Amino acid sequence: MVARVPGLASVRTAIDGVDDGLILLLAARARLARVAGRLKAHAGARGRDPGREQDVRERAAALATRVGVAPEVASGVLSLAIGEACRAQALATDMDQGQAGAMRRMMPATMDAQAQPLPPVGESLLRLLPPPRRLAPLLRALPPSMQKRLLERAMAKVLAGPMQDGTLDFMAGRRLGIEVGDLGLRWVVALQGQRLAVVDAPAEATVRGSATDLLLLAGRLEDADTLFFQRRLVLTGDIELGLTARNLLDRLPWEKVPLGLRIALNRGARFARAARGAYHAKT
After folding, report:
1. Does the keyword Transmembrane helix apply (predicted)?
2. CA-to-CA distance for 126 and 14, rounded, in angstroms?
3. pTM, full prediction
4. Which residues contact 28 (CB under 8 A, 6 or more apart)?
5. Can you identify the CATH homologous superfamily of domain 2-102?
């Protein structure tokens, strides 16, 4: 057995120590980012600094090259850290800003939270809204056929471009599950001809998260890497299939999504985030 390899246990213990150190360093960075956010707010300087982010990425890439780490690995870790810093400072988490040559993401900089402010809603009113899990019995009362039609129509609108250019061909003969834990909803989707359909079959890979976190991902107020890193999204089953689907969504050009759906996702995500914050403040 692998566990009996001489010397392996001590090496694994050392790796665990390095992993713990990484988490502690990320926590320290997040605290410093919150301090930076307060300083900027006090000085009247709001928003992200693309120049600063570019400098951070270039410095990390140079250091990674010197110590034998792939620059893209360093960039991935920094993307998580920057996304967490933006979340802590209540900034838009569009990962393109400050990243030279980055892949096009779903949400361009012009669709950030400051560009289209959420209509003002009093915090006291937000606190009256129940958490999503309280709505689960009502949603489960919807006929499965209606749930199926709504999800299939939404997927058809959002993924029309990838469907036409063959990007979704990797889903041929595969089944991907989507679980909304706090709402008790679960679907399995598969590629059937030229459309994604909800099927009655076991999933090969499943993405699980809360209604709010999935909406934040769809509205591009949170990025997938940060949500998976924080265990707010969980991927089970065939990891390769799940990651391929996630990467597709990450690279989906936002401008190809119908304008009305873009606005609905963005505003709905910001409202859900505000409601969750008000609820947690109450409790």
Report:
1. no
2. 47
3. 0.53
4. none
5. Chorismate mutase (1.20.59.10)
